[in-house]
Structures are given as structure tokens and as C-alpha cells.
Amino acid sequence: MTRYIARRLLSVIPLLIAVSLIVFGMSKALPGDPVAIFLQQADIANPELVNAMRDKYGLNDPLPVQYWTWLSLMFQGDMGESIRRGERVSDLLFRGMRNTFSVATASVALVIVVGWTMGVLSAVVHNRAWPQAITRFLAQAPVLMISIPGFAVAVFMVLIFGISLGWLPTSGVSNPREGDDVIDLAKHLILPTIGLALASVGGNWRLARNTMIEVLREDYIRMAHAKGLPLWRVYFVHGLRTTLVPLLTSAGLLFGSLLTGSFILEYIFAWPGIGLLLVESTVNRDVPVVMGATILIASLYIVLNLAVDILYAIVDPRVRYA
Fold first, then answer.
1. I need a labelling partner for 180 at 20 to 30 A (CA). Which of 3, 260, 271, 315 fits?
2. Which are the contacts of 144, defined by CB distance < 8 A and separation ≥ 6?
3. 305 pLDDT exceeds 80?
4. What Rg, from alpha-carbon coordinates, does the chain have?
């Protein structure tokens, strides 16, 4: 196990180097001069100022020098300064990632608790003599969740629970009057979490159901029944452990996709997250923020995949490094 984890950790190094090269190349491929665009938006036409700011941000250096300088500073924890906002990129990313991380974590928790539980329950019902109506409902409900766009559900919830009934807040991460109150944050999290997680709940529900049904048809499950083991032990010890392998893959990729795919929900709920920050920075050619946000998100994907691979080896000892 230790050797497996060590080799997987070593495989991350070339991936991070490749990601840094791709991120740097993509940022330089953005059309337009970021400094000139920023000054133009401020109605400032001063070539000397443009050149001075380009020197400040190292944009006049050769590309290899720019890449090495950026990479060296990034490994020291310095991602540069935002051209548009004048703040440290690391501070902007920390605030955005903190907000997105909170709603993404809540969404993944909802997916695991509801999606996995209902999927396993649907598989168990499928193999038992339950009424056909219940079996069909448990099989079709996740399809309905997948079919409804999350942003449509978000708008509907805002209109009903936020505006009409006034039960929940519809924007921001907190009420200024409440400060950093945990209960207030939880209230603001409810609607974005449901809107972001709904389709993923349906997808994981369906995945857990189909996987569990196949597992319950295996010979070792029949042998467990023949030995007279309790049903809960057959389903939740022998069956669920095998089912967890594809579910762990889904959960790991899901968390990464929620971090980057929450822009529409962040816009609807005015949630100041990393997705909204990245899109705004790309539109305004704020290259330091774009580079910092992209490398951070890509690194998170790599770390999450590494964590999933390690969990594979823990859940299923047959997994080996290939």
C-alpha cells in the first residue's frame, strides 16, 4: 500500500508541470493586451503608462522568462497581483474558493446522502417482491432529476421559497446584520446547494442503483444468501463495498466539476465563487487571476483523482498500480 501511494504521488509531479505549461500557453493566447484593455476601460490613453505597467507585471520579458518567473513565484505562494483589482491573486482566489468550496462540499454531501442511499434502496427494492409502482418510481425518479436543468430549478426556487414565501435568502453568502453566523450561512447555502446538486443526485442515484443490481447478481452474493447471512450484511457489507468503487470515481470527479461548473448558479444567487471570478477575469483579460485560478482548479482535479485512486486501494485491495 505504501509503495502504491508513493508511486501515485510521484506521478503527480509531471502532471503539474504539464498543467503549468498549458495554463501559461492558454493565458498568453488570449487576444488583446491586458494592460491596454484595462486602461482603455478606464478611459486612459497613455502609451508610457501602458509600458510602465507591462514592466511591472513582467509582460515585456521573453515568454520563457515570464514562465519561469511565474512558476518560481507560484511555488513560493505568490501568484502575483490582479491587473484589474490591484489585489493579490492569492487573496482573491482564497475568497472565491472558500465560497465555492462551501457550496460544492454541501452539494457532494447531499449527493452521497440522498443519491447513494436512494440508489442502493432502489436496487434492494428491485430484487424484492415490492409493488411494481414503487419499483418504477424509484427507477424513473433519477431520470427526472437529470432531465431538469439546475438553473431552471434555481430560478423556480428563488421565485417560490425566496420571493413568494420569503423563507430563504436568494443572494449572497450571508446577511450583513448576522455577520459570520453559521445558521445564516446555512440558510444561504440551501437553495444554491439544491440547484447545484439536483442533477448529480439523479445521476448518482441511477449509477448506484444499476451498479448494485449487477453486484447483487454475482455468485458470491448468492453464496452469502445460501449461508443464511442477515440481509443487511449481504447488502451493506458484501454488496455495497463492491458498489463503492465506481461511486468513489463519480464523487471525486463530481466535486471537481462542481467547483468549476457552478458559474450559472453563482450568477443566479450572486454567490461570489471561483467560477464567477474566473469568467469575469477572462472577459476583462486579467491574466494573473486567470492563470492563478486555472492552475488552482487543475491542481485540485489532480489531487482529487489521486485521493480517489488511494481510496480504491483501501476499498478494493485487488487494485494495483499500473
1. 260
2. 202
3. no
4. 24
What pLDDT is recorded for position 176?
55
Q: What confidence category does residue 127 fall into, taking pLDDT thresholds of 50, 70 and 90?
A: low
User: What pLDDT, on a 0 to 100 scale, did the predictor assign at position 22?
Assistant: 85
Whether the pLDDT of residue 103 is over 70: the answer is: yes
Residue 268: all three cell numbers together: 443566479
**Residue whose entry in the numeric block shows the C-alpha cell 507560484:** 74
Q: Which ranges in the chain belong to alpha helices (H)?
A: 2-10, 12-29, 34-41, 47-56, 63-75, 89-110, 117-126, 132-147, 150-157, 182-215, 219-226, 231-233, 240-260, 263-268, 274-283, 287-315
Among 34-43, 176-185, 271-280, which is the least confidently predicted range? 176-185
- Please check whether residue 153 is in contact with residue 209, taking contact to mean a CB–CB distance below 8 angstroms: no
Q: List residues bridging with 88 in a β-sheet.
A: 81
Cβ(204)–Cβ(116) below 8 Å: yes
pTM here is 0.69
Instruction: Compute the residue count for the chain.
Output: 322
